[in-house]
Write a structure and sequence with these properties.
Distance between the termini: 34 Å
Shape: globular
Helix content: 25-40%
Oligomer: single chain
CATH topology: TIM Barrel
CATH architecture: Alpha-Beta Barrel
Bound molecules: iron/sulfur cluster
CATH class: Alpha Beta
Largest sheet: 11 strands, mixed
Order of helices and strands: EEEEEEEEEHHEHEHEHHEHEHHEHH
Number of helices: 11
Strand content: 25-35%
């Protein structure tokens, strides 16, 4: 891959800056690292012409930005290799996002619309098609579908229909949400729990808790969120109904300024209903503009040990792989790089 400073490509056609990414180099794959997607992969509602491949077969990532019929771009990814228990396909749920998470590459973009159930399902079809052409061994392995790309899934009224379509193909499923405070989010969460009570494969809910401080969490997400007490009740309700994955994952994004309060964890998040997932922060350009920096690795290890000694199950599967770290592959980063390098207009939220 060649690294190109983003200021080489960040001007729109009328000569204005379309974004300010000068701190981060953009990586554009060289010819041997990108796949021309089957001469342009066109499904009923999505299309893509290029996917970028990072790493190798032992620690690899394929990501692409798919285009909807009305011109919206979403990210689809595949993560595989010897350290992953399953090959993961990550799909998106919305075009843009109503939340404004300070660390996320899509946090500064306007929300456009919800994806339909078909658009969610087709993302899996598109990625499996790409894998079967270029990495056949991974196209045949069992996939876990993770709804964690562009958008907040529980704010999409079509999410349950999308999940049902995926369930009809026996996928293991995971959904990541920052849990905005909204009746739709609560309704979707309870419907998901009811699907999980009957499904023969695991459905894993993951709450992007971000930190153990409500004020820090709210200002980081830029949207009203459910309180820790409300999340605590949802964890108990999930545990009572889900048949396979009984605990809700709580994901902490480990930035340097991430407050960790064990008293809050003890009071609201019982180890019976919740486990913790630590994700080292992978720098994004939006995160850099918000002065987000990685937590020191010694502190991360110390925190993991402390949580374990408090009786929590702490999973390590979220630790970014060397390939993800080298290419700074946080969610939606490849999508943004492709938008910039293809000259796609980026509609930013008003400040
Ligand atoms: S982290 Fe998720 S909810 Fe937050 S801005 Fe990014 S896509 Fe939206």
């Amino acid at each position: 891959m060649t690294r190109i400073q983003v200021h080489d490509v960040r001007r729109s056609k009328d000569g204005k800056d379309i974004m300010n990414l000068e701190h981060i180099p953009i990586e554009v794959p060289t010819r041997e690292h990108y796949f021309d997607v089957l001469e342009r992969c066109e499904l009923k509602s999505l299309s893509a012409s290029q996917a970028w491949g990072y790493g190798d077969r032992t620690d690899g990532v394929v990501e692409l930005a798919a285009l909807s019929k009305d011109g919206g771009m979403i990210e689809i990814g595949s993560y595989y290799g010897t350290t992953k228990p399953k090959s993961i396909i990550k799909i998106s749920s919305q075009i843009g996002c109503p939340a404004s998470c300070k660390f996320c590459e899509v946090g500064d973009e306007k929300f456009k619309r919800n994806l339909t159930a078909t658009e969610m399902f087709e993302q899996v079809g598109m990625m499996v098609q790409i894998l079967s052409s270029y990495l056949p061994e991974y196209s045949r392995s069992p996939h876990k579908i993770n709804i964690a790309g562009t958008g907040e899934p529980l704010l999409n009224p079509n999410i349950i229909d999308g999940m049902k379509l995926l369930m009809s193909h026996n996928f293991t499923l995971k959904m990541c949400s920052i849990m905005p405070s909204s009746p739709l989010v609560l309704r979707n969460f309870h419907e998901l729990a009811s699907l999980a009570s009957d499904y023969h494969m695991p459905i894993q809910p993951q709450v992007s808790l971000l930190s153990l401080n409500e004020e820090h969490r709210r200002t980081t997400a830029g949207i009203r969120l459910l309180s820790f007490d409300e999340l605590s009740k949802l964890g108990r309700s999930w545990n009572e109904r889900s048949s396979i994955r009984k605990q809700v994952n709580l994901s902490l994004i480990l930035t340097e300024d991430c407050p960790i309060d064990f008293e809050i964890a003890r009071r609201c998040f019982s180890p019976e209903y919740f486990c913790f997932r630590f994700r080292d922060y992978v720098t994004t350009s939006h995160g850099q503009r918000n002065e987000k920096a990685q937590m020191q690795s010694e502190r991360v290890l110390e925190l993991k040990e402390q949580f374990r000694s408090e009786g929590y199950r702490v999973t390590d599967d979220a630790t970014p792989t060397p390939t993800e770290q080298e290419w700074q592959l946080a969610s939606n980063v490849t999508r943004r790089r492709m938008m910039v390098s293809f000259g796609q207009k980026i509609d930013l939220k008003k400040k």
